[in-house]
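Sequence in, structure out.
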Amino acid sequence: MPAHRLLIALAGVMGAAGVALAAASAHGADASRLATASAMLLFHATAILATTALLARGLLHGGIGLIAAFGFVTGAALFAGDLTLRQFAGHALFPMAAPTGGTVMIASWLAVAIAAALPRK
């Protein structure tokens, strides 16, 4: 499967998971972790779709843009996965999983900025 199609599929899965976590958050007691996890998944699913569209239009440097999009997937999965596991299982994914995911998402946003500034490939 080409990278762009994979990213679009992953964004769809992230969007669905974000909506499911939002519903769980709305109906669960003390489920603020789920609301935060939902927001990160939904925001970054949209960011993946936008990055993929910008790449397809040639508005971002290809390699860096792809790294950013896959960084959104990885970072959001780590962040949301850690919060969700803490909520439902009572333990972390691994030590520092959520902060690592957050750092990857921040780096990915910076990569989008760099991909826009550099000459396109």
